[in-house]
Amino acid sequence: KTLEEMTVSELETFATYKGVSLKGISKKADIIKKLREELSVEETENEVDYGSPTMVGLLNE
Fold first, then answer.
1. For the segment 8-44, what is each residue's pLDDT rounded down to a tens digit?
2. Exposed (0-12), middle (13-18) or buried (19+): which is 46, by Cβ within 10 Å?
3. Is 2 exposed, middle or buried, given 0-12, 13-18 or 19+ CB atoms closer than 10 A?
4. What is the pTM (predicted TM-score) of this model?
5. pLDDT tens digits, 44-54
6. Tell me, what's the pLDDT at 40?
7. Distance CA 33, CA 39 (A)
8. Helix, strand, coil proportions of the chain in percent (round to 5)?
9. How many beta carbons lie within 10 A of that of residue 25, not counting itself?
10. Are the C-beta atoms of 11 and 52 separated by less than 8 Å?
11. Are 58 and 38 in contact (CB under 8 A)?
12. Residues 47, 24: Cα–Cα separation, whole Å
């Protein structure tokens, strides 16, 4: 999924996984903006994977 396709809950989980604090941020657009500010283009512009490789593999099956 791209950031725009993710739910707020998924974005919050992704931010936690990447170590990005979302304190005081609750709107989807603001979360996406913060992630883009904190992370590299490669991490935010492509399909986002997070979780263990095993779980990512299982989810894709």
1. 999 999 999 999 999 999 999 999 999 999 988 777 7
2. exposed
3. exposed
4. 0.71
5. 776 666 555 55
6. 82
7. 10
8. 60, 0, 40
9. 19
10. no
11. no
12. 26
